[in-house]
Amino acid sequence: MASRAAPPLTCKPAPVALPLPPEVTAVHGAPAPCGRPRRPGRATHQRNLSLDFRSMGIVLPPVQHSSLRRTHHRNRSLDSVLQEIPELEAAEETALKPALSCPRVRRAGPPPPPPVAAAAAPRLGGEDAASLGSTDSGISSDGSERDFRGDVEHAATGAAAMASGPARSAIDSDWPPAGAPVTGAAPVTVTAGTPVTGAGSVTVTAASVTPVTVMAAGDAKPGTQKSWLLRLFESKLFDMSIAVNYLFNSKEPGVQTYIVNRMFSFSEEDTDFFLPQLVNMYIQMPDVAEVLHPYLVHRCRKSVNFSLHTARLLDAYSSDANLSNKKKPLGTRLRNLILSDELRPKGATAAERRLAVPPARPGEQTLSPLRRTHQRSRSDATASYSKGHQRTGSTGSMRCYLGDIGSGRAFDSGCSCYDTAQGKCNDLLGRRVECVCGAPRLRPQLEFIGALMSIGQRLGAMPTREAKTTQLLNELSLLNLNLPARVWLPLYSTGHHVVRVPAQAAAVLNSKDKAPYMLYPHLPQDKAPYMLYVEVVEVDGPETAPVPAKCINTLRHTRSEESLETAAAAAAPAAPALPTTFSLYGNMDAENADCWSQEDDDISQQYWQLRRPRLERERDTISQMSLESADSREPVLIAPGDIRRRLADSLAAPRSTFARDPEDPSAAVLKEPWAEKERRIRASSPYGHLAGWRLLPVIVKCGDDLRQELLAYQLLETLDRLWKLERVPLWVRPYRIVVLSADSGLIEPVVNTVSLHQVKKNSRMSLKEYFLQEFGDVTTEAFLTAQRNFVQSCAAYCIVCYLLQVKDRHNGNILLDSAGHLIHIDFGFMLSTSPKNLGFEASPFKLTPEFVEVMGGLGSDMFEYFKILMLQGLVAARKHHEKLLTLVEIMRSGSQLPCFRSGAATVQFLRNRFHMNMTEEQLQYLVDSMVESSIHSLTTKLYDGFQYFTNGIL
Amino acid sequence: MASRLRPGSQKKQIKEKIVQIYESFFKGEDVAAGNANFWDELFLLRPRVSVLESELTRLSSEQLSALKVPLNQLFARCVDVTDAVDLLVGLDAAEREMGRLCGRCAELLAGLYPETLRSLVLDALLAVAAASEDINRNGLLEYLMINSSLFEPVIQLLSHGATRSVHGHKCVLLLTLLVNYRKSEPANPYVVKLSILDDELALNGYSQVITAALSEFNWKYAAQTCDSQSQGWLSSLTSMVGNMFVADELATRSESIKANHGVLVALYEAVHLNRNFIATLTQASTDASSQPPSPQSTLDREQAPAPPAAGQPDPLGAPVNLLVAFLQYCSIVMQDTKSDAATNNVRQCFIVLTCVSEDQYCNSLMHDPNLVFVVRLHRLPMRHRKATDRPAHPQPLATALLDLTVEFIMSHLMKRFPLDLYLQCVGIVHRVLCYQKRCRVRLGYHWRELWSALMSLLKFIVSNENAVVKRNNIFELAILVVNIFNLFITYGDTFLPTPTSYDELYYELIRMHQVFSNLYSMSLRYSNEGEHREAAMRLTNNLVNIRAICNHFSPKIEAWSQANNQTSLTEDQVLDVVRSNYESLTLKLQESLDQYERYAESPRYSSFFTAVVRSVIRDTWSGLNFDQVDHASLLNQTSAIS
């Protein structure tokens, strides 16, 4: 093929910096190798044009273009994308970009580019920058450009076009052949396309991008084969999933670089979703790391949150990677770089430069503005210099309390830039406020999360559940001393500041649920997950927005005389619901009384009496009479029989909550309807009056590896999206995960749910009966809705359980929400693990006769609907199976996670479970038989029984 | 003063003795050595402020700090002398000079000075505050009132963990004394400032200091009792014999109780004056659980979380909060009401608990089913029961508070009947019930214990009528107790946990009907004559419903047992009878069962607190010891200042 015939140019850059002549000072200042006058600025300008409009969706027919021009365009496009990137960023990126020029050219040309990299090196922390930087920017090197032309002219291969540089012919052999035999589309593309660009990579997406493939195949002519891959990349269908897939599968530096550059134009949410995959590739694949580095650095600069996420993931996924070839693996180095807090927004460094550049260097300062690289790198150096200087100053004047929980300022970085008049003014104007004081940027957030984790650790040391509960209360009340602060829960993407953690609402969770087998070998003793409700106030841009002021006055704040009316009004509607809340939380009176002084009480009592609903007034008749009787000396008679009846009535009123069980405090906490809890906590919070007030739940886990949960979240989320895309009414509830390290993390609790175990334990009835109790008779609309919800969610999770081989499905791991949805949690055992293969849970998924009973029994309409849904869901999943496989496959590399214990076969087995070769009839038959065998599964019953005996889970 | 007005004119004069003393004093010589009457002589001499001043200003800061100890000594001596202000500076300049002194002290406390120096300043201030036994007659304090600039630095010291652990106790003590200076007059700025203080950290620090002192006491006591319990019967026998001769244990206990006087007053002032302080009652101690800050090493704390300090197991288990520590403290303190001092101590505890049980917010904290704590209440060993402390499990604090009152009621039924303590104690129960009734909180409490305790109390009163009634007006107490029962009877639906508990209430009333009828006949006897006539009459009225219940159900039960031919009925059978006979019973509605007189310090407890503060001052004064200051370390530290 053409590319094979192409000159064997390996464009892998030389890993060591070539000796540089001292007199050469700037990249662009290097003498033009061919004597052509250098116009560095223009070179960049030219490159801008193409991808801009291409990515706008105007896809130019590639075949018509000469490969030469296309190359140019693409090459430029890199920069055009980079245009969005802050100045400094671009510089560094240029410096760090793997060479697109081939070494041969460089050798032919004059001395390679000068120490841009060297200038940037200190910021990147030593050797890592040196190694990356020294590869240098071929882009701007004139030699490469010139060479390109020639190169492309005779190597008109797709690979060359793609890679904007000579192809590496070695690709063929490297290519994992897995995809090719399976997909039908593969042969087509292989014949049409070139082996160079990697048949596998195309076929991997074949199912999802069929139109493109077909078009490409049709278009394909010898000599222009490359076009279809490019067209795929430029098509609208090119999304992060495909990008990540190609990044993983392509060994082509050019392709990789192109993809990373495209990533700059993807929305941040899209790329963030694949962050675990990106990070894992960064750790496992040095070549990908090189191209990814600029992107990650760029994002880190922009956002504290992204920095921390990346650092955490790097940390977590480095922990068990077998990387012994280098002293300090790439991942660790990037992590340290991020944590060293040197990746600051460009603005800050610019401001610092203004402050700090000594007047002795104005000449350099006014160097041609086109030589951006040079300027920028110097400013970096000065910035870091001045930063250190300032920091010592600030510590002198004000003590740094970061991390000292007792100080009340544990999460206060000491930065006041956002709170100054200037900062507030800018904020109001919508201008981005920048911190110029050099206060630690990541530390507050690090300390906050660290504090949450250390609470968990100390809880773990407590011997009993009671001690844990008390300890948690104590710890949280301490934590509150340091709030509000400019910190947030990384679990939630909406910008917010944490203002308070209501200690009473927190609960220690059953860590027992996490250990399906008593004999589980590595069960750490100090696991103590706990659940928090965090009060936050929503803000735009939590990194800069001013933090709400501390409100200590919990006693009066919301109850001043002025707000009397609203308080009473707010309380009034809730009055009919009083009986239900009596037992547990006192009631509305109590709620309000929290904050009342006696004086307030008297005033409001009178006020309230006027407004109270009649029902409410009757309740208190006795007190009223008692008061009245004080005046009239006429004895008022009361009947103790009535008193007792009222007592019995108020307690017999249907409860929306479970009784508080000291053994399982989380049950009651979880069962309380979310809206009610939110209202209750808001009413008692001193911050409740703030406009953006919200309550966010979070589970903090110490001693549990959540990386698998994270993968499960990604898979569930992907399934959810694709089912929505395919309009299959299946319902899943992916819950968010933040991995903090290899053995800790945050989990988003699913609110308004109780586990089946808790349902059974507290209500002591079958699931069907529980449904009847909660939602009403079978004929009611509420019940039918709940039943439909149940079926749709049950079918979805059956597919999930089958595809992912989720095990450990006891009733403690299956939740039921207030709308009747079934939700599976805890994906600690999936793919190739099942807990101690004792032969339990042999059925494809958990479908007990009880579930079927809720659906209406075997043969009922809803049960048939259930099976149809399963089939539809499976077909839809199969259509997009590559998206799922990509996620799993990338995470598998280098991973020691238990779910990958069977190695490469894990992915293969997963692929097999999509049954690509089956017709729909066959699939339907498969579904039927799986449902059948699950219902009658003896092992499911056995497993539930086992769980009951070992862990007391009903 | 004259010397101040013309400082230059005296240059050539012969040095006065006082000047010589000043000079030698500032050279660091021990002027008092060898002359027992030195201080007396010194204060007889006319002070030369200008010389003193110039001497002081001449000194370098280094020297000055080195002289801090003697200066303090000097000042303390000055304070000893009754009219020290006049002697030191003359009355006309007093205001300005004391203002400067205050300013300087505030500066020293707030600035970056070594802890020892601050400690000395606090000592000096305490010496000023404790200069006179009757705090209201301490003229020096008047100047501290005019210059209230000391408040902020002291609060600062309390806010920060590091300084708090060193100076916390002194700060709290100082604030307490300052607040108690003519507190009934509105002029005291410290009262105002303390009552509006809303710095959460400072309040938290304040509470930590008290918590630390109380839990140290608790811990010592627990260790002590643990020791005595763990040694076999032989040693307990010997110690019993030993206790006959020397009440050693008691001595040490009263010693530490006394030492806690100041802390108790501090707690009282905070609870009484500051509304925000209530919130800190259930906040845990920061000092126990927070590791020392290490700003440098914490950069990657998140990634490599510091291992929990395994090397330092907390002797008390989980960090305790103030209310828990205080309840435990109360349970220990109230075991001893033999001496007046001990009784006063218990009284003060009950006053604090009264304030607490009147506070809505605190009540809501105590009744929150999610705020559960382990409270280890100590129980006195008594003849009819073992001293074993119950296995404690976490429970809402209101439960612990009720347990505490039940314990007090049961353990003080003695000839020397502490009536006013009982009034306070039952008053606390009443306040808690009023809150529950008003807010419809159903505390899962074993109410039977409370009922039987209250009935035992009534029984004791009735059977010891001669001994008790003569000395006290027990009718007030009886009315209160009966009213609590009336509260249960009338409003039980609003706060009892189950319908059965309402039946049980009737069961208990019927079972103990003898007590009530005896009480009734006793009150009838007194309602015709004597000084307690009115109260006795009210009691008769209040007993109306209980008597109606007893009279209604007793025949029914009688009839039932005859019908079923059973002489003794089981509890369930009685409950059945009760349940089936509610309907035919009507009761009279009692008036204002849920009203109580709000606690007010003045006038009822004014004199009590004057006495308490007096003893606090005595303690403070004896606690101050300038001779113990470690000069070497002080010098080391102060040399680093300049």
Automatic annotation (TrEMBL), chain A:
Its main location: mitochondrion. GO terms for biological process: phosphatidylinositol phosphate biosynthetic process; phosphatidylinositol-mediated signaling. It is an enzyme of class 2 (transferase). The keyword Transferase applies. Residues 126-148, 159-178, 349-394 are annotated as: Disordered. The keyword ATP-binding does not apply. It is a peripheral membrane protein. GO terms for molecular function: 1-phosphatidylinositol 4-kinase activity. CDD domains: PI4Kc_III_beta (cd05168). Keywords: Kinase, Transferase. Residues 380-394 have a biased composition (Polar residues). Residues 131-142 have a biased composition (Low complexity). One of its GO terms (cellular component) is mitochondrial outer membrane. Residues 145-340 form the PIK helical domain. It is found in: Mitochondrion outer membrane; Rough endoplasmic reticulum membrane. It catalyses: a 1,2-diacyl-sn-glycero-3-phospho-(1D-myo-inositol) + ATP = a 1,2-diacyl-sn-glycero-3-phospho-(1D-myo-inositol 4-phosphate) + ADP + H(+). This is Phosphatidylinositol 4-kinase beta. It comes from Amphibalanus amphitrite.
Automatic annotation (TrEMBL), chain B:
The keyword Transmembrane applies. Its main location: membrane. Residues 284-313 are annotated as: Disordered. InterPro entries: ARMD3-like (IPR039868), ARMH3_C (IPR013636). SMART domains: DUF1741. Residues 389-624 form the Armadillo-like helical domain. Keywords: Membrane, Transmembrane, Transmembrane helix. Coiled coil: none annotated. One of its GO terms (cellular component) is cytosol. The keyword Zinc-finger does not apply. This is Armadillo-like helical domain-containing protein 3. It comes from Amphibalanus amphitrite.
